[in-house]
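Tutorial, part two.
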Amino acid sequence: MLARAMLKNRKSEIFGKVSDCETDVLRWWWDDPQGLFGPGFHRRWFMHALNAFRLLIPSRLRRTVKDLWRRARTPADWGRDDRPSGMRLLVEFIFLTFPSTVRENFILWWKQATGPLDYDPNIEPLSSCLRRRVKIWAPFLAIVFILAGAMALHRYAGWRARDFAARALRSVEEGHWHLARLQASSAYTLRSRDPHVLLARAMVESLVGNPSAPEAWEELPPGTFLSRDEFRQRAKTLSRFGSTEQHRKALEQLDRVGMLADASGLRAEKFTTYGNLSRAIIEARKAVADGDNPEHKLALARLLVWRYGPAATPAARMTPEQIAVVEEIVGLIEALEGTPQEGAARALGLAKVPVRAEKARAWALAAWRDPSPSNPALLTAAAVLVKLGDFTPEEMKDRLHPVFKNASVPERAAFAGWLLSNGWPQRALAVVSAKDAAQDPATFVVRADALTAIKRWPVMLTMAEEATNAPASLRALTRALAAKNLGRPGECKKAVQDALRSALREGTLAECLRAVDAMNENAVADEVLIELCGQAGDLNKVFPLARDRFSRRGQFHSLDQAFTLAASQATQVASVKDYARYLDLLAGRPVNLEDTAAAVEEDPGSTDYRMTHALALLLAGRSHDARAVFDDIDVFVYRLSPTHRVIAAAIFAATGEMPAAVASVRGLNPDLLTKEEYLFLRRSTMRMMP
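Running the prediction step on this input gives:
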């Protein structure tokens, strides 16, 4: 009895020092009969935490908030002068009540947490005192541990995100594109606002050639520091995949920071995309003059080869302009000696530039100074040395075989192609196995060509079925060729249809059509192409191909079928509207010049749109404006379809360029023109016609 009385007095002495709220909490902890652990301790500790949280909201604070809430909900008290206003109570609460309450409660807690243990063995055991002290410290330590854990987790996630970003950039350099995108995505998931992560993600998306890369660059916060390489990559991405406005701003920023050579190089790329090769060459020459960048020199050499085509003209028949271009290309190639672009430059020169035998031999021998499978000029140099008679094909094969023995699959595929070009299909098959063909599309093509050369159609059919990484259109074409030569016309037709439909999804429909034509399956190709013109979602990809194909072959009935189907699906598609305007112009019906001009502005690289706009201007009596439509694009008349050659001849005749007009229609087969086109040609070029 005496011990209980002494314990009760001790409890009263302790509880009298704290407020009502704290008294409730301490009494709960004091009278807990189960101790820290025991049956139902999860529920008890939840209640302990809840009541400990109530310590952070003292009674004075609760009373002040309740009074503010009551006065706000009681309009009758708003005008009374004997009570303080709600704003005054709020100000007092913020600046006086709350700080003092927090301070007083913290001081009280600190005294209880760090003061003497007040241990008296006659009143209570030591374990109860220690348990009481642990319960006092437990909420504070829990909060500290939670905050420390959150901060540690935050820092670890940030470090991990930056580590993923760095790994992604290294993976891109090593050529592991898929892994790089996964790592960049993981870093972005962990830290979607970190500038380092955003920059790495933008670089990875740009280097892998993702068309959505401009969006990643736009996420970078303003003022993010970029190195010259990053700045160059950003401008290149915005120029290639961004809008016209983004392209303009990117080039302006390059000019502003003094990177004039890079800006000119990007302008050259853009003009090349639009088909303005002459302006692209001007900008490429500026890029070479403004900086000593090997990539710009190689790009200029390629543009000169593409624009002037010296390889297509024998050296004895080259014009003075072509001779000057060849000399410029040779100078660019020799200027790249000792640079990383040396191999690509020598390969270009040996394959595309007509030079003297001494110069070709010197280039080929220089390429052999690096006998490695990664040298892009090695196989071309080997072919040149065989052609010049310095080596026999067998000797060159013996020199190349140890070089490519342990090469990668694409490099061995290139060597197999060299063997195949020299008439050794069996040896080519020994270099690339069926397993290699199933993994690499280029190897698949080489092995299929080798099997075709030795007419092993069953093996070819099996390879087409087992290939996994080759595109579906390529496998279907291989299946079609094997089935055709095995005497299975039905299976061949089905495979050709599958190939063309797959090529449309893969974006290789034009290449697939050429392959089908090489198999003499033109009728099936025409049938599928007309059928595809009836699919509204792909008209801008299919109808221009159908229009060019059928007009070049004089298949006007097929063209009418394709146009009818396309117009029935979607009359607002740009390519369909353009052909409708063209028919209206030939029939003498008026066409809005603003619509034709808008079509050219939307797709500057489309020859169809430019020809329709020029024809509309010509019929409106503006022949010089019609001629000016092609001032910012290079048009090679001999490559145009018969329809476009008629329009070009009419424009030349209207502007007084009679030799060009005559050259435009020289050798033109009238059977490839519609009646309306032939009559238009007769009216427009009456003076030069017999």
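The CA atoms of residues 583 and 589 lie 9 Å apart. In part three we will examine how such features are distributed along the chain.
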